[in-house]
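[scheduler] slot 2 assigned
[scheduler] job type: sequence-to-structure, two independent chains
[scheduler] chain ordering preserved from manifest
[runner] begin chain α
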Amino acid sequence: MPGLQVLEVEPDKLFEKYTVSEIESLQKSINDEIERKREELRTLVGERYRDLIEAADTIADMKILSEQVIGDVECMNTALAQLQKKHCVRQPTTVSKPSRAVGSNCTVEDEIAAQIKLLVDLPEFAWNCIESGDYVTAAQLFLLARHVKTGFSVDKALKDVSSNLTVLEQLWSMISHFPATILKAVEADLLKTDLCPKETCSCLVGTALLENSSLVSKYLSVRSRALTETLTKTDDVRSGILSSHSVVVNTMYSLQHCFIGILFHVFKFMT
């Protein structure tokens, strides 16, 4: 019975057209088709259940992860509250009495005035440090200014009184650019051919205070640029070779002084 669709046969016509042996063969084919359909059904149901099981496992994992995130957020809130309480040196001041004395002779207004005076004078000090190459002090002055600015935002006693002082934002706009200015000046100094280890150390420490980066990678990257500029911007070949040699020697000496020498000192101290 070639080409016969076993699921489309009519039982009444089977006995008219086929012999008993052919009908038995057809019956076997039908049974095989039934078993194949059953197996497909089992596989289909199994895959659906497998998807459901995987979805349930994923939901359970999401629940555990969500609980961990909630716990971490609660820990952060607790830590921030403790940090704010630790660094709040003033006594609690009610909103209705902002001029209440915080110390024996100091009021909240006095503290605000002192900190505003600090923000007013700080840019001049920072510029002087940048011009003299003292990038460590310049970075520390910026961090101090940022600490004062943050204090006005998180300290309730200061925030209630200073909320209407537009001068704070004006002062901060004069200070907020200092990280970029300091880092730009640092990069310009690191490009110099004859930079001594002390100046290199000042540049690197100032950078470490302002950004989270690998100092060694940054230093080698800038010094590579310095070497490239020395070789490409010099018309005299002899002068270019001598200058590039000076850059390489200076770089290695500063690298040993600022990094390797410190490591040897630490290892010696530990042993």
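[runner] end chain α
[runner] begin chain β
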Amino acid sequence: MSLQTRTEQWKEDPNLLAILYKAIHQKFNLHIVLSLGSQLVYTLQQSMKIQEEIVQKRIFATLRKAFDRMITEAQSTTSNNFRTTTNHQMLTIIKNSRNDMKLTHNITTVMQKEDQLKKEFSQYITGSAMKEIQGKIKERKLRCQMKPIINKILQDQFISYVEAERQLFEEEDQNRIRALRENNMEKYIEIVQESKNNRLLDILKITEEFLQQICMRVSIQRLEERDPQFQQQEQIGNQEQKEINDVYYSLAHSIQEELKEPPRLLTGGQLKPYQMKGLQWLISLYNNNLNGILADEMGLGKTVQTIALLAYLVGEKKNKGPFLVVVPLSTMSNWENEIVQWAPGLRYIMFKGSKEARDSIWRDCIRNQKFEICVTTYDYVMREKQKLMRLDWQFIIVDEGHRLKNNECKFVQVLSKYRSKHRLLLTGTPLQNSLHELWSLLNFLLPSIFNSCESFETWFGSPFGKTFKDGKNTEVLQVTEEEKLLVINRLHQVLRPFLFRRLKSEVELELPSKKEFILYCGLSLIQIKMYETIQKEGRIMIENIKQGKYQGQLLNRAMQLRKICNHPFLFLPEWEKEQWTDSIIKSSGKFQALDKLLFKLKATGHRVLIFSQMTHVMDILCSYFEMRKFSFLRLDGQSKNREDIIKRWNLKKEEEQKMEKDVDGEGKVESEGQEEIFIFVLSTRAGGQGLNLQAADTVILFDSDWNPFMDMQASDRAHRIGQQNEVRVIRLLTTGPIEQRIYERGKEKIGIDKTVIQA
């Protein structure tokens, strides 16, 4: 066996000291012993794992010291003596190291026990316990790996579920709204009950309660009138809830009379089909002892339909009246002209004029009832109430009936005391600001049915901004489009027997279109300066050249801002305006735009109506017209001979040249042979209602009214039956915030009207 082989074998023996002892006693030569000793020392240093570091170092030191001594002695002695010396030295080393070997043996025993424990522990953990632990670890790892996948699957399933639910809800919503638009309330209620929509069910419940109350009041009224046809019908209290909506209208209009031809006293023209339908509805009101509102859009002939009703009552029903027709002062001449044209066989009187003239009419005609129709104004209804209240009127008809929108005003309170069997309101704008106004009209017509404004607004006011207060907090009720549509549908069911409305776009297809434009005008430098001064200081200082004084604090800031937007000359004394005539145009942004616009309109043959809220603005406009040599007419609340002014405007060129009478309110008109009058400037309040001015095809709203329906009424003076041309309405708006605010507020009010009345 070679040295290397022996050495490798000895390296594998864990007992290193025993290996060394064995090598010495086998009588190797010195070279082998020294080599083996070096190998063993190195092996001991590299391989021996003893936990006690002190013992390890001690063994190493003892062995190395012994080998060093052996090498030294080997060099000084002969080879013959080497074996003995070496044996002796090795025995000494072994003897000296015996204690260390015992310690090493103990350490080895401990390490063996530790290895045994490790082996047993390893066997334990590789057994069932380890498998359980590893199973849990594996399961946890699997869960961690599967978690994103599971989440993705759940997310996809949730999205699919939500999408399916959304589609289901949308389908339900569409079915409900479709049934609502088709006025199929039975189907709608069934769908709502299936979906268990509590908010919709609440709305249905409270509006159904109101409908039941209205039905009950109508039935009581009909019973009190001892209507034989109505007494033959079943009582409304015995009807099932779902049938109330079906019988409500038929209950109110239970007596039906078919109108096959126009009244025989209506000889002045042929009614249009939609006017015949309106007459049929008015006759139904009369036959069923109901009052109502004819709310056709302006220009569809409410006056003609009313005259047709009166002709029917006198001719077919043999009802000789008396009939009281209350109209604005500016429309009296129009009513007279329409009566003469359409029903010349009717006897009428125009109750107006001075005190002596009215007394004469009373003595000669009214007291002896030598008339059938009495046409008068709002003012005379109050001033002559002591006389007019003596009569039992068959019909009280109020033109521009929206004047009754405030049930607390004096005119409404006085007119409500007049005795009459029937009442009828004519208005193109039954709702202008709020539901309270609509209720006021209904209360005047049917006080026993619509007797509570509070309950009316509670049931139907929520979609239009009604608030509910809880302590100090005020919350605006937010409603969906469906809820709003539902409330409006129920409101229409309430109004249907009493309100009849058509739009031009629905019935008068041959009427030319009406287009509206907004012309924005910048403020002039002086307007900007004055506007900023009032906004900052609340007053404006304008030097009075003649007296050296200044204007001080302004009372109504909003009104003064509006005046600045119109023209700064409104703040000048009368005598100063004449000195600044050449500055009329450049001082106002609106006048600058108007000047360019009018020249173009005149060159293309248009005739123009100009409406303004302020008579002083009309003064400045007239000065401007004279400066530009535009022919014009003027109509405001102070104008006399207004009938002649209106007739002059509507005359054709040939007829106008034959007129010799000087008309008050006329501007400078060139001599005979000149073109038709170019401009008619009117006050919005005095000339914006009830007039037929279809000779014009262009309407300019110089300034906007807080009530947008006044502007609508004004613009429809030209857009009405008889108009041959397209009507263009041009609204002048400056960049001043006050005018923008008025315009935006007006759009909100129009939105309420479209929602409630026109929906």
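[runner] end chain β
[qc] chain β: The chain has four domains: 3-125, 183-254+472-497, 273-446+498-507, 514-756.
[scheduler] slot 2 released
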